[in-house]
Amino acid sequence: MKDISINDFQIGNDQDFTLMGGMNVLESEETALLVAEKFKEVTDKLNINWIFKASFDKANRSSIESFRGPGMDEGLKILEKISSTFDVPIITDIHEPSQANPVSEVCEVIQIPAFLCRQTDLVSAAAKTSSAIQFKKPQFLSATEMKNVIEKCKSAGNEKIILCERGNIFGYNNLVVDTLNFQIMKGYSVPVMFDVTHSLQLPGGLGKSTDGRREYLLHMAKAGISQKIAGLFLEAHPNPDKAKCDGPCALRLDQLESFLLQVKELDKLVKSQKDLDLK
To answer: How many domains does the chain have?
Structure first.
């Protein structure tokens, strides 16, 4: 198993769980700092390894009317301020090969969005930076097909690879999470994360935007953590009903501590138990 070093902690399926937490899209510097401050407060209190997450551009929105974000230049300034203010590593998405190098200068982890993880030029550009690379497993791919993504990234010279489960398409406007995917992807000797936020989407459920099922966030998070994985990907918002992207899936910010306390307790229990060879 290959763990990934990020600043002063390790991301690994047998390590204490890592939280990639923040907000979906950078709505404003003020809101981003508010969200980051809360995550910092709670993760320090609970002694949880934390990487701040936010997107400077949501290039795959359902509608042309949807809010996309401040763009790369302004977004990276906000992310850099969060990094220095709260002494936290950063993860954000890229959508074009030209974004890889400037994003890598600010972000310890580059995320390749689910829809784009088969784009060879994008994967290669990200892999040639010094950042770790997180791949969201596409809604349309099986866990076994992620081996091809890993090999593509390694062929470009980067073995700091993290895979992230986020559900699979199940008919129209629905996603399901197959928990076997966690074990299959762990078999590739990479850290595996669980994006509990986007696994609860109902794509296109609101016509021009995505609906969601935030009431199941804790239950789904526990299901993922029970699989002895590297950690959780979670988005929160001060007022999810007014969030500019994926609000129906976002945790209320004031619920963060009680949420993470339960997740951490389960992670500790699961990782204290020895796996059995049942073959």
So the answer is: 1
